[in-house]
Structure formats: C-alpha cells, structure tokens
Amino acid sequence: MLKKSLRFWILTLLCLTMFGLLSSTLLVSYIVTKENAINHTMEINRVYSEKLAQITDQSFESMKESLSLRAIDMVPLLNDEEGLTTALYHYLRSSNYFNSIAVINEEAKILTSAPALDVIGFHVHSIGITEALQKKETLISDLYDGVVGQKILLISSPLQDHEGNYYGLLAGVIYLQDHNIIETVLGEHFSQDGSYVYVVDQHGSIIYHADRNRIGEVVSENPVVKKLMNGESGAMKVTNTKEIDMLAGYTHIPSSNWGIVSQTPYEVIMEPVLGTIKKMMFYSIPFVLLTFLLARMFANRIAYPLQQLAMQTFELKENNNTVNETKIPTWYFEAERLNHTFKAYIQNQESQLQSATKEALTDPLTGLANRRALIKTLQALQEQMHFSIILIDIDHFKTVNDTLGHKTGDETLVFFAEAMQRITREKDVCGRFGGEEFMIILPETGTQDAIDVAKRLKDFLQDTISPAGRVITFSAGIGFYCDSYEGEIDQFLNLVDAALYKAKDQGRNQYKTA
C-alpha cells in the first residue's frame, strides 16, 4: 500500500490543529459570551426590578398618605350627601390614583362613590372592606373579587374626627384588569425585546401582568415567586409556570410584602450570542484560508528536502548504489544534517565501490590489471576498434622461486610489470594474466607495432639486472584483432596462447605471431 507523504501528514496535522484551535476558540467564545449575556441580563433585570419596587413603594405610600389627608376632609361632610359626592369626584379627578373611590360607614354601608355605583346604599362585606373596618387603620388589602366583578385592590383610610370617633372608611379602589396606577407606574419593559414585568402579592397571586388575563393567577410554585414570598431579592435563571426559560431579576417590597419580577426570555439573549459566534466564524474564514495557504507553502518547503532525500534513497536502491546528484535546499537544521549524512554515505559507498572494483580488477602484487580486467577490456575493444595483444610468459621463472625464494620471485614479477609500463603508451593496458604470464593490450595497433613493443621490452630487459641478480627473458605470442575476424575473444586468445607456446617450444626468449 502506498504510504502517505510527509507533506500530506504536515497538512493533515495543520488542518487538525487549525480546526481544533478554531473550534475551541468558538466554543470558549460561545460559553463566555453566553455567560456574560446571561449574567448581564439577570443583573439588568435585578436592578430594574429594584428600581420599580422603589417607585411602586413610594407611589403606594403617596396613595395612603393622600387618602389619609382626604379622609380628614370627608368627616365634616358625612351628613351632606351632595357635598360628599362632589368632594369624592374632585379628589378622583385630581389624584389619578384610583379607578373609583367610595365612603363606607362603620356598618359597611356604601354612602356614596365616584363614579356612582349601583351598590350605593348597600352593605358590602367583601374581604378588603371587612378587614379595613376591623383594623380601623390605613392599609392595602390583598387582591380579591369586588362586587362589580373585577379583581381589585382596596386602599383604605379610617374616617375619624379629632376626638377619635370612628365613622367608617374612605376606600380607594384599583381595578387590576383595567388601566390603573400600577400599570402606569410599571408601564412597558424598557428593553422591548420580549421582557416584561409582573407583580405578586404575599400569597403568590399576580397583581399586575402585561397579560391582564393572568391577573389573579396563583403562581406560588414558581421558584422566583417562592423566594419573594420568603422575603428574598436577587436574580436567577428560572423555568416559569408556562415552561419557558427566563432570566429573572426580583425584588421584595417589605412595606407591602409584594414582589416585583423583571424577566427576559432565555431565547431572546441566545439570538445575539449565536449571531456573534456566526460573525466570528464569518470574519475568521479569510484569516483561516490565508493561514492555510501560508502553512501549505511552508509545508511544501519543509517536506521538499526530505522528499528529495527519500527519492534519492529509493533511486540508490533501484540503481545499485548509483544516484544522480540533485541539489537539495537545506534551509533548516534537520534537512541539512540528513543531506550531509546522505552525501557522506554516497561518497563512502562510491569510494568502497571504487575500491572493491579496483580490487576486483587489479592484481594485488603488481598493481596491473588482472585477468578479469584484461578480458573486460578486450570485450569492450571488440565492439569499438582493432587492436593487438602481446601474451607474455617469463622464461624459467620457476627456478627463481625454487632457488631464490618466493620473495625474490615476487620482486621479479613487480620488476617485470614496471618494465612493461615503461615501454608502453598511456592508452595501452598492461596486465598480469596469471602466475608469470602477462599481457599487453595495444588499442588501434597492428601486428608490426606490437612486434616493435615486444622488441623494446626485450631490449630493456637485456640492459637491466632484475632482482633475481640476472637478466630475465620472456617468450611471447602476438595477435592482431580486427572487425574481419569472425571468432570470439576466447578463440582469439587461444590462437595467441598457441603462438606463445610455439615460442616456448622453439627455445624461449622469442615471440611468435598468431
């Protein structure tokens, strides 16, 4: 199976790294942005609910104070029905606190109201009026169903003269399902993003809600409402009674035991968070692409030297330790060291190969070409040109070894080799064919030229004393090879060898032509 390249793995690692970094960055950004948005929204709602609680508390304190002052003015008019009614209408128009206002005597009988109601003259025993008549003090009732079919809050103040005589109460009524002072104070949530405000009493009943149909609904199981009923204030994420996730800020009002909740749907804050992450992804795409292109360029530069070294190694194996040298850019340390080591290895292999080749083709004693090298040379010349050879055998060499020893014999062989090299040309090949046999290959040379070389060698030896202490002679066979010769090199050598033995048989110290 074809292995993947280093460039592939570098780019794969790069893509995984970039994907991991981008994913982790986006994930961390999402988590941090979401947490910040949640905390920020809950804190805004907490502060907003706290502010609304202060305003609401101040408004109801103002209502109670205003009602108490009006109650003092109403006592002298209790026996003047027309004047009492006029005073009620005047107060109703000037205060805008209440939806209606009524004077009720100590027997729970409605004396008059503004606006006029069909229940004037009737005795009313509702929860709020009964409580007010019993306590004989300024108070705010719990939410209850009024005689006119509305869910109402009753704010009442006792009717007493300066001597402390009690005559009943002045009652301000807020119709919770109509436009009222609470709605005016709380109004629409400032965010206008689906956030809203609602108010619950100490029993968990909704006093105010943007959806008027929910007024009077008991939501005491809501975790936020439970905290308000316990007198706590704060902020939290909550799933409301409608199974909707909300981010709520809540504030308890100690004076009335009410609670105000300002809350925002969780999905509302998630939309900008997801939008922010999408923008981050969109804006990061050009930088990711640019980074990838730059990294790809560097990956190519990093991988190229190693790729070239790998290809040269493969080529070295396929081509029997020979390789075409290619310039490899080594701009970083590891590639430079590998390239240096590879070149050193190639040089060493070439040196060893040359040494082995030389040893395989060189006679170790004389340094001349050996029999194998001579045969290879002849085969090469056979295809290219005509040539001559001189096959030589030293006369009576065995007696040198027998009488003077092998060391002298070896010295004599070296002496003879040097003599051959002296009298031949640079392009001629001198070699030891075996034992005391030698050969001279004369490229582009005819028979007569070969004879002249043999004569020069003979003359040189006659004038020189060898290591054996005497003049040595030789017998030789001379052959000429040209393109008209139809036989093989082995046959040609046999003919020359036969000429050599003919020279030996006829008395030695001579040469014969094949």
Report mean pLDDT, rounded to a whole number: 87
Provide the CATH topology of the largest domain. Beta-Lactamase
Named at the architecture level, the CATH assignment of the largest domain is: 2-Layer Sandwich
* Order of SSEs: HHEEHEEEEHEEHEEEHHHEHHEEHEHE
Shape: rod-shaped
Strand content: 15-25%
Specify the CATH homologous superfamily of the largest domain: PAS domain
The total tally of domains equals 2
Number of strands: 16
Based on CA atoms alone, the radius of gyration comes out at 62 Å
**What composes the largest sheet?**
6 strands, antiparallel
- CATH class descriptor name of the largest domain: Alpha Beta
Number of alpha- plus pi-helical segments:
12
Content-based structural category: alpha+beta
Which blocks of ≥5 consecutive residues have pLDDT under 50?
none
Share of helical residues: 40-55%
Q: Kindly report how far apart the N and C termini lie.
A: 62 Å
What can you see in these coordinates?
By secondary structure, the chain is an alpha+beta fold. The chain folds into 2 domains: 1-301, PAS domain (Beta-Lactamase, 2-Layer Sandwich); 371-513, Reverse transcriptase/Diguanylate cyclase domain (Alpha-Beta Plaits), CATH 3.30.70. It has 12 helices and 16 strands. It has helices at residues 6-74, 81-95, 127-135, 181-186, 223-229, 266-318, 333-361, 371-382, 397-404, 406-423, 447-462, 489-505; strands at residues 100-105, 110-114, 139-140, 144-145, 151-160, 166-175, 196-200, 206-209, 234-239, 245-253, 258-265, 387-394, 429-434, 437-443, 474-481, 511-513. The strands form 3 sheets. Strands 1, 2, 3, 4, 5 and 6 form a 6-stranded antiparallel beta sheet that branches. A hairpin with a 2-residue loop joins strand 13 and strand 14 (437-443). The longest helix has 69 residues, at 6-74. It is rod-shaped, with a radius of gyration of 62 Å. It starts with 5 loop residues before the first helix and ends with a strand.
